[in-house]
Amino acid sequence: MEPFLDRLDHPVYVVTAEADGERAGCLVGFAAQCSIRPARFMVWLSKVNRTYRVARSAPRLAVHLLGRDQYALAELFGGETGDDVDEDGRRVDKFARAEWTPGPSGVPVLDGVPAWFVGQVEGHVDAGDHVGFLLAPIASGSRDGGGRTGGEPLRLSDVSHIAAGHPVD
User: Fold this and answer.
1) What is the pTM of this model?
2) CB within 8 Å of 130: residues ≥ 6 apart
């Protein structure tokens, strides 16, 4: 399957969640629109990721499309884990180093990304080491007012060397 997969270079996303007073977010490479009418989008979260554990209880998730100029944001959400604690024993807070605004149900919406949407979690699909979250969009926005003029998205090949905060063996 690698000859096929090695040719793919799809956009990457940051998915954020809020549940029970906890925020989490991670870089996601497995995601896609999966229905036109009704509009639906599926994001896949690794079971070893803290974002997955928070998202299981979240009624809504936010999905953020990153621009080519947002490598640092991808590195923050892809290369660090909220499971780590600082020298004072406090959980590392990625959101303290990113600009964001509370969206519907308090889900963090990252500021300055080309486009984002918040989706109601409609269901889950267990697919091995990842679980799919089926999302029904309820709110969206973009930094350029919409359309396809927001520049090139950050792609898998741009972030392939980021060491995952929670690597999958």
Assistant:
1) 0.89
2) 30, 44, 45, 46, 47
Strand 31-35's sheet: what is its strand order? 22-28, 13-19, 60-65, 115-126, 130-142, 40-46, 31-35
Report the CATH fold assignment for 2-159: Pnp Oxidase; Chain A (2.30.110)
Q: Give residue-wise pLDDT tens across range 11-30.
A: 999 999 999 999 999 999 99
The token duo for 69 is 């100029």
Closest of 33, 25, 28, 36 to residue 11, by C-alpha: 28
- The DSSP letter of residue 153 is B
Most distant pair of Cα atoms in the chain: their distance = 49
The domain limits of the chain are: 2-159
Q: What confidence tens digit (pLDDT) does each residue in 87-118 have? A: 776 777 899 999 999 999 899 999 999 999 99
132 CB neighbour count, 10 Å cutoff: 17
Among residues 61, 77, 26, the alpha carbon closest in space to that of 47 is found at 26
Model confidence band, residue 55 (pLDDT cutoffs 50, 70, 90)? very high
